[in-house]
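Report of the visiting student (M.T.), summer placement. My assignment was to run the structure pipeline on a short list of targets and document each run. The first record concerns DUF4352 domain-containing protein.
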Amino acid sequence: MPNRLPRTARSDTARSGTALLCALGVTLLGLATTGCEDDTAAASGRRQPATRADLAADSDGGKTLRLGEPTSITYKSGSDHMRGALRVTAVKVRKGTHAELRTAGVDASDVRTTQPYYVTMTFENIGENSLHYPFLNTPTGLEDTGGVDDQPLITGDTEVAACRGKDPDDFAVGAKVSLCKVFLVPNGIRPSVVTYSTGDDTKRPVSWKATP
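After the run finished, the structure tokens were exported:
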């Protein structure tokens, strides 16, 4: 006749087995939960910089700011197509002279019906990536009181000494640079707003009043 445990012993054994299974279940559940939390945190860590940049950037798209007022924009260009964030400020708009353009080698006959204006911008890399050949100044524009986008002066490798705008080859995290761009405004017309396209959305650029 097979040996049987007393009822009390069997009950204790069952309870022990159940407790062990429960403990294992809690442990496994805890490990699974921890694993999920770790995965979520890791995923969140990977996405977090871009999310912060998106929340901070482009909030002034479509607005007209005062000269000297900074704004944050999403960076989506450059030779390496690196995503980042910039703090951009239109600092100054001032008249230039034809003499300064001639000194830079500009043919006077090409600009005689226009008045040169110099637009000074500052750029700061507030993202988490260094930017290679960023073309920071390229999206800078100037619109006149007639609502027309004025033409920038193209001088090739020669810069106007009074308005230097050569981009840095590399723009490190935390770096800041001031760049100037020459625009040719038709005689008798005044600049109205400085514009800067926010990322890829050129239909909603940030704008600054051209006068304080």
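The longest helix spans residues 7-56. The longest strand covers residues 84-95. I thank the supervising group for their guidance throughout the placement.
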